């Protein structure tokens, strides 16, 4: 680094200007590139939000349909006719009676199967293993799958079980153990299994992406519940998105995909939407290339022009350097003139005309600078001394606070903390205005001290609307009003006093109200108020000076009616 600095210092001014132009262009390129990347990132975020919204609405639609089917499985389980038939399945009735019961079960299942468009089939198994099926697709489960479903459904003890079977095209089923509710015996009567056409549910979802409709996949914690696409990307999708919710751009078989993900509390499922990135961002990619080529051409042109501009600027300066060498040998004092072209009327010409005056002023400026430095050092020393007393007081209060905490004196500790906060804010006058939220914090600390003083006699309420918390107000405007209320509404009497501070937005202005239920004030007290030297007139004047003559403080009071002080200020928002 030192060698580079030395090399730069040895360069001529024109070369330094050229290097400086290079640096400006490089930094500009970084800023432009960063801005473009940020803009594209924001666009990606917009795409993600759009995809997330679509995915959220799709997942809600899917889950609404599945909840309907779940409710139907409960209705089937609780159906009185089905319960009665399954209860007497082993009774030794005639063959005709048995046939009629089975016929009734098939008809009943057929009625339920026709109620929902997305049910492919309903399978009912009695406790003997006999199957009753209905629906458009009555394909039976394999023995291995059936046993796995029965075991998991029994573990749910009558609750609904959603299960995906298969690998390439998973089959979504709803299974529930049928238990007798007769005299609450909860006897096992059989099993109900509903096959759901999840593909049709997803196919009927509204398409909000035009021609670029993405693939939707559903996965639980162990496997893929549903996938429209059998590609490796969809099969291994859970490994592509490690965190939910979010989005990521992945490449598969030479193509990029925009994958957004969304968790769901229903069955602990995760929803994924996969969109073809290259198709969606083709125009954006083209614009990136055009911007890159344009900037490279612009960079080359600036370099050529920069070299010529640097030479034109440094030419007169180099001639002035030659003249200054003559001055170094005493030529100026001898009456020698600076040998610059007569047509030089720019800054170099001004240097030519003012060089002699500059030399005469150098010594005077040096002496003045030394004197100013001495004054600055003395001022800094006094400023440090002025900080000793507040810092000493803060440290003393902090020591008292820790001593109170060590002795389990919580009230003393709280009062010391509040006193330190009030002292720090009263001394710190770096800014004239603070937010209403910050001013309310000062009031809370002040009222904390007063609560320990007056105990249950003081009932203080703070009500500040969220929309005005960050509006600005002159510092130390509210605490004197609290002190005024305590002095005239609470101190002279022994009964409890309610003091309320409210802040809200009315007609574009902030209105702050301090109310008490004291005896009220007469005109003499209104003109001469408390606040330990900080009167209501002082607050009124500071508000008018800060915000204008149309703002300020007004008082509403009457004998035996309490006092209300209103402050009206504009809603000028500060930093959150």
TrEMBL record:
Q: Catalysed reaction per UniProt?
A: ATP + protein L-histidine = ADP + protein N-phospho-L-histidine
Q: Which residues form the Histidine kinase domain?
A: 478-573
Query: What CDD domains does the database record attribute to this sequence?
Result: HAMP (cd06225)
Q: Where in the cell is it found?
A: Cell membrane
Pfam families this protein is in?
Answer: dCache_1 (PF02743), HAMP (PF00672), HATPase_c (PF02518), His_kinase (PF06580)
**SMART domains xref list:** HAMP, HATPase_c
Membrane topology classification: Multi-pass membrane protein
Q: Show where the HAMP domain sits.
A: 311-367
Stated name of the protein = histidine kinase
The source organism is Bacillus atrophaeus (strain 1942)
């Amino acid at each position: 680094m030192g060698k580079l600095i030395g090399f730069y210092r040895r360069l001529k001014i024109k070369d330094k200007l050229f290097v400086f132009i290079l640096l400006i262009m490089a930094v500009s390129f970084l800023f432009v590139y960063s801005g473009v990347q940020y803009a594209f990132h924001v666009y990606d975020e917009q795409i993600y939000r759009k995809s997330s919204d679509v995915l959220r609405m799709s997942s809600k639609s899917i889950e609404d349909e599945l909840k309907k089917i779940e409710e139907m499985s409960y209705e089937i389980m609780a159906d009185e006719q089905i319960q009665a038939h399954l209860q007497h399945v082993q009774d030794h009735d005639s063959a005709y009676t048995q046939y009629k019961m089975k016929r009734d079960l098939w008809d009943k299942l057929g009625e339920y199967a026709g109620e929902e468009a997305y049910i492919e089939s309903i399978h009912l198994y009695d406790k003997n293993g006999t199957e009753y099926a209905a629906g458009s697709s009555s394909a039976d489960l394999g023995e291995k799958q059936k046993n796995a479903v029965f075991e998991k459904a029994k573990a749910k003890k009558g609750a609904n079980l959603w299960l995906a079977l298969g690998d390439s095209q998973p089959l979504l089923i709803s299974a529930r153990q049928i238990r007798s509710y007769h005299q609450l015996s909860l006897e096992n009567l059989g099993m109900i299994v509903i096959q759901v056409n999840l593909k049709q549910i997803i196919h009927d979802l509204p398409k909000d992406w035009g021609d670029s409709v993405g693939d939707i996949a559903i996965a639980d914690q162990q496997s893929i519940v549903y996938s429209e696409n059998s590609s490796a990307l969809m099969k291994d999708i859970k490994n592509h998105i490690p965190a939910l919710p979010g989005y990521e751009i992945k490449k598969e078989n030479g193509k990029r995909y925009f994958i957004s993900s969304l968790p769901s509390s229903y069955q602990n499922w995760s929803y994924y939407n996969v969109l073809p990135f290259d198709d969606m961002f083709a125009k954006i990619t083209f614009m990136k290339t055009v911007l890159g080529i344009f900037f490279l051409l612009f960079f080359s042109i600036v370099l050529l022009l920069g070299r010529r501009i640097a030479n034109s600027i440094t030419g007169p300066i180099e001639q002035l350097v030659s003249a200054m060498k003559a001055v170094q040998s005493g030529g100026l004092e001898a009456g020698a003139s600076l040998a610059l072209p007569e047509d030089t009327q720019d800054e170099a010409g001004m240097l030519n005309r003012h060089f002699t005056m500059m030399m005469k002023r150098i010594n005077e400026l040096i002496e003045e600078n030394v004197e100013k430095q001495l004054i600055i050092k003395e001022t800094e020393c006094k400023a440090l001394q002025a900080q000793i007393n507040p810092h000493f007081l803060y440290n003393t209060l902090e020591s008292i606070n820790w001593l109170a905490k060590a002795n389990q004196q919580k009230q003393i500790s709280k009062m010391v903390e509040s006193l330190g906060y009030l002292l720090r804010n009263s001394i710190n006058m770096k800014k004239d205005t603070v937010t209403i939220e910050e001013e309310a914090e000062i009031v809370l600390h002040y009222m904390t001290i007063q609560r320990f003083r007056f105990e249950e006699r003081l009932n203080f309420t703070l009500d500040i609307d969220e929309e005005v918390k960050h509006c600005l107000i002159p510092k130390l405007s509210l605490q004197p009003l609290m002190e005024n209320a305590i002095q005239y509404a609470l101190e002279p009497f022994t009964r409890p006093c309610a003091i309320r501070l409210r802040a809200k937005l009315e007609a574009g202005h902030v209105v702050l109200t301090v109310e008490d239920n004291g005896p009220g004030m007469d005109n003499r007290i209104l003109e001469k108020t408390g606040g330990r030297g900080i009167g209501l007139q002082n607050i009124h004047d500071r508000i008018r000076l800060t915000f204008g003559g149309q703002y300020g403080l007004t008082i509403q009071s009457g004998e035996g009616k309490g006092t209300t002080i209103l402050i009206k200020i504009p809603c000028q928002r500060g930093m959150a």
